[in-house]
Every structure is written in structure tokens, then in C-alpha cells.
């Protein structure tokens, strides 16, 4: 895992966009984004049990596995959104980037590879993209039914109770201490 401020320059979303300014694991944790390295699935099972996850599936995001819909899927994942549930992603193979918003709405890019596990809190605005290798295989863990419901950013979603709770409980506290 490597995290850094996104450089905001134009160019393909799959390029690194590394500003050269690193972001620490502590900084991510202050935003409610938790990272673990899990060399074996037992570590994943322990985290899932502790946090009450009941379901999981595996997704492969690549032109080989998705065919004609690959580019549309990548565009969809890259639209800024939130979820009403916490989400865990465990990388089984390949690489990709999760971008999350900091306190001042700046993007932080989190580069993930095999054995990396990330927990994103409910209500955080984020997006995902493959990198230039166009290949990632990940385990998706769900607290309840295995559904992936993105709520794309907009005035209405800003007022979503899960968003408001995240802003009050996590984002404002993070801004106060950082
Ligand atoms: C590598 S997992 C596919 C993307 C995804 O599950 C997600 O939640 C994007 O926001
Ligand atoms: Fe998401």
C-alpha cells in the first residue's frame, strides 16, 4: 500500500497521478480509512468476524474478464460516490487505486496490490480505478447482502444521513486534530 495526495493534473485516471507528497496510515485512519496487510485469508476472516461481515464475493476487473463492458465499468467505478455501508476490499491479484476525499475535499490516492486490505467507512466520498496494467482481482466483503450500491455525489447525497454522520463523527474531528 502506498498513499499520497493526488496531483490533479489532466491525463488518464489509470496513470499514478503521484504529487510526491505521501499520506501516512495514521492520516488515513483519522479519515476512518483503515489498512491491513493480510498475507493469508485467515487474517481477512478474523477482521470480517470482528466487524460482523456475513457475505463476500470475488470480482475481476479487466478487459479479459469483462470484455466490452470493461471501459464502462471502470468509468462507473471512477464516478465519485459513497455507500451507506462500510466496505472491505481485499486484493487477491493485480493492482488498483482507491481515491478518497480528505477534510478539505482534496483527493488522496491509495495504491493497493496483492495482500492489501482496505476498510472504507460508510459515507466517505471515494472512487476506484484500475492502473495501467488494467487488471485487478479483489474479494469484496459485505456486512449484509452482497450488493454494491453507489450513491453518486450531488446535493441530495450530501444530505444523506450516512454522509452527515460521517462528516460529523469523523471528518470534522479529523479536521480539528490535523
Ligand atoms: C476492486 S473492487 C471494485 C470496485 C469496488 O468494489 C468499489 O467499491 C469501488 O468503489
Ligand atoms: Fe465504492
UniProtKB/TrEMBL annotation:
Location of the protein in the cell: Cytoplasm; Nucleus
Protein's GO biological process: L-methionine salvage from methylthioadenosine
Class of enzymatic activity (EC top level): oxidoreductase
Positions that bind Fe(2+): 81, 83, 87, 126
MF GO annotations: acireductone dioxygenase (Ni2+-requiring) activity; acireductone dioxygenase [iron(II)-requiring] activity; iron ion binding; nickel cation binding
Cellular component terms (Gene Ontology): cytoplasm; nucleus
Enzyme Commission number(s) from the entry: 1.13.11.54, 1.13.11.53
PANTHER family: ACIREDUCTONE DIOXYGENASE (PTHR23418)
This protein's name: Acireductone dioxygenase
